[in-house]
Amino acid sequence: MLSGHFTKLYPPASVNLQLGVDFERDYGKATYSIDEFNAPLQQIKPDLIIVRLGENVADDDVQSRHFESQFQQLLDRLATYGQPVKIVITTSVWYRPQTDAVIRKVTAEKGHTLVDLSCMVGQGQYFASQYTNPGVAAHPNDSGMDRIAELIWAKIQ
Question: Where are the domains of the chain?
């Protein structure tokens, strides 16, 4: 849905996906390097970056693993890779109070656009509850993904 909005508005637009799960799971560890984003940034040269992370950040680790400083470093890397870029950041669709508080704080400090997805937290109609596997059922279903896209689009159009 979101990709369709972009290509409708600007047909030559291309949309590229870069997973951030390594950052979410490994930030602050000696084995993790934020340099994982260097090559994609240089190859793609985006003028808009939508940062959708938080669900895979363990809320209990936010303080001990210094999520705030790590998230600041991530946003700095995205913002200074070589060309002007607009950065849009979302909160989580899961209950992640510490993670979301850091995302809100750092996003405001950096002057980026925030898309608050807290309206989706706990709203069953947006999640794949038809599946018995709790890990799968906790993820957004098609309606949830559409809602995320709508909320992002409302902030960037």
Answer: 2-156
Q: Does domain 2-156 have CATH number 2.30.30.140?
A: no
Tell me the β-bridge partners of 51.
89
Q: Could you tell me which of 47, 43, 51 has the C-alpha nearest to residue 6? A: 47
pTM of the full structure: 0.94
According to DSSP, residue 140 is labeled B
Return the pLDDT at 146. Answer: 96
Q: Which of 9-13, 28-32, 118-122, 148-152 has the lowest mean pLDDT?
A: 9-13
CA 1/CA 140 separation, integer angstroms? 14
- Band the pLDDT of 155: cuts 50, 70, 90: very high
